[in-house]
Write a structure and sequence with these properties.
alpha/beta; seven-stranded mixed beta sheet; 47% helix; globular; disordered C terminus
Length: 241
């Protein structure tokens, strides 16, 4: 069965290119293209695509407002991927709270976009690591330190280590390698962390860590382990499982 995709961007040439990228995959089908956020909301309600890819800046209704309306619908099953540029970190921070499943730079290579669609469709979350680290650097220093939340006290020392690493956009494999444990053990720790902190997914864990100043710009500037290189030598987007 093909995954059904809706594209929303006010630049026709970008939409055309993105549709061409998705069209290279036998299991992906673009069911609609729209040029504004209001149309994205309406067509999502009508067509119920598996994934909607929304640009942040669109006329009539911006991408974040469109995402909020789509995700708030009681019968919604569509996953949202937000497209962002380097100067829109504050919007991404807001979108993290909404429950969007993915955050990609518009300059991301085709293989990252294809991977993001598959990741979002199966219920996982993805965020470009460079976006995560810039968010932390931008907001961590400006957020007043809160009183230590009581739920953090329920985390074990190892769960706290895992939380700090996943908040820096490290993959399960990277966390496992850094801590000297297995991938399945990391998944177990992540599940327990989300349950104890009452978080929906790992993107919310990033927001939680930043908001409570569990990570700092100095930490993210020198993340443990090595980032994996993509096919073009760049950094791969991390998918959160």
């Amino acid at each position: 069965m093909k995954l059904r995709i809706l594209l929303a961007d006010d630049h026709a040439m970008f939409r055309s290119g993105l549709r061409a990228v998705l069209g290279t995959q036998d299991d992906l089908s673009c069911v609609a293209e729209v040029a504004d956020g209001q149309a994205a909301v309406e067509e999502t309600a009508r067509l119920r695509p598996d994934v909607a890819i929304l640009d942040i800046r669109m006329p009539r209704l911006d991408g974040l407002s469109a995402a909020e309306r789509i995700l708030a619908a009681p019968d919604n099953t569509t996953k949202i991927i937000v497209l962002t540029t380097y100067d829109e970190d504050s919007y991404v921070y807001r979108a993290l709270h909404m429950g969007a499943s993915g955050f990609l730079l518009k300059s991301a290579p085709p293989e990252d976009t294809i991977a993001a669609v598959h990741i979002a469709a199966r219920g996982d979350a993805l965020i470009d690591p460079s976006v995560t680290r810039r968010l932390i650097a931008r907001f961590a220093g400006s957020i007043a330190p809160p009183a230590p939340p009581t739920e953090l006290e329920r985390l074990t020392a190892r769960e706290n280590d895992v939380l700090l690493l996943l908040a820096q956009a490290h993959s399960n494999t990277e966390i496992a390698r850094h801590l000297g444990i297995g991938d399945e053990t990391v998944k177990t720790h992540v599940s327990r962390i989300l349950a104890k902190l009452h978080l929906r997914d790992r993107t919310q864990a990033v927001v939680y860590a930043v908001s409570h100043r569990l990570v700092s710009p100095s930490v993210t500037a020198r993340p443990p382990g090595k980032e994996t290189a993509g096919p073009h030598g760049g950094r791969n987007s991390r998918h959160f499982r």
